[in-house]
Design brief:
The protein is built from ten helices and ten strands. By secondary structure, the chain is of the alpha/beta class. 33% of the residues lie in helices and 15% in strands. It has two domains: 196 residues, Rossmann fold, CATH 3.40.50; 83 residues, no CATH class. It is an enzyme of class 2 (transferase). InterPro entries: PAPS_reduct_dom, Rossmann-like_a/b/a_fold, SO4_adenylTrfase_ssu, Sulfate_adenylyltrnsfr_sub2.
């Protein structure tokens, strides 16, 4: 007899939805790829992809768009996980794009390679003929991401037009594209930052050490604490560096990713901290998204993640 009292937890529902999306895209597209930075969201996606095809291996490669200005702890972790899981890791290098004259290095105090990732990403998608790219974006992060569909259409120039997105009814996804077009797929669309951390705890996922409190040399700019150890952020003479106990809520280009003061050294402490905060992680930690409310939307229209 069928049980009528079977209930799923919030994480079970989110996990089932994400696995359904991953399987659907793997079935419908010829050459999908999972964008993998070594950060918490991409690590959750990696676990979901493992579960989606277990006991078979993940049937598509993972790709990191490497700015060359990453935190060393994250790159070491990325490479180690790729080796442990026997993943095919594709590294698309922004430095190679600069060397080839495809993009020009920014200059000045606020110079960053974050925007330069767009060209590198689109070139890699064209080179490897990827037709679907799984990304870890969540709708709770900021306004532009909230406009995304789960299967988000990109035209032949890699551009995103929020007014030209296809309707998604229930869990029915439009996966039809023409030659030269591709889609970005966001299995974590309906997750929140707190959901991610709860899932990390439940699945006992290892994360890069910079997600937890540690002592780091930083400097303050516009109310944010930027890294002073790697030398990627162009610190001015009027921006003295100092030591602080910090952690990172997100990882990315070290030149524009801010740390937050924190004493949270365990998963439980981080979860308590996230549950109490009222500021989104991008609003608190990404300098490039603070330039205007439309900053992320502008970059997405250009072909950004």
């Amino acid at each position: 007899m069928q049980r009528s009292d079977y209930l799923l937890s919030q994480l079970d529902v989110l996990e089932a939805e994400s696995i359904h999306i991953i399987r659907e895209v793997a079935a419908e597209f010829e050459r999908p790829v999972l964008l993998f930075s070594g950060g918490k969201d991409s690590l959750v996606m990696l676990r979901l992809a493992q579960k989606a095809f277990w006991p078979a291996p993940i049937p598509f490669p993972v790709m990191h768009v490497d700015t060359g200005h990453n935190f060393p702890e994250v790159i070491e972790f990325r490479d180690r996980r790729a080796t442990e899981l026997n993943l095919r890791l594709v590294v698309a290098s922004v430095q190679e794009s600069i060397d080839a004259g495809r993009v020009a290095e920014e200059t000045g105090r606020r110079a960053s390679r974050n925007r330069l990732q767009t060209t590198t990403l689109l070139d890699a998608i064209e080179e490897h003929r990827f037709d679907a790219a799984f990304g870890g974006a969540r709708r709770d992060e900021e306004k532009a991401r909230a406009k995304e569909r789960v299967v988000s259409f990109r035209d032949e120039f890699g551009q995103w037009d929020p007014k030209n997105q296809r309707p998604e009814l229930w869990n029915l996804y439009n996966t039809r594209i023409r030659q030269g077009e591709h889609v970005r797929v966001f299995p974590l669309s309906n997750w929140t930052e707190l959901d991610i951390w709860d899932y990390v705890r439940r699945e006992e996922l290892e994360l890069p050490s910079i997600y937890f409190a540690h002592t780091r040399r930083v400097f303050e700019r516009d109310g944010m604490l930027l890294d002073a150890e790697t030398g990627f952020a162009n610190r001015g003479d009027d921006e003295p560096e100092f030591e602080a106990t910090v952690r990172y809520r997100t990882v990315g280009d070290a030149s524009c990713t801010g740390a937050v003061k924190s004493a949270a050294q365990t998963l439980e402490q981080v979860i308590e901290e996230i549950a109490a905060t009222r500021i989104t992680e991008r609003g608190q930690t990404r300098a490039d998204d603070r330039s205007s409310e439309a900053a992320m939307e502008d970059r997405k229209k250009e072909g950004y993640f």
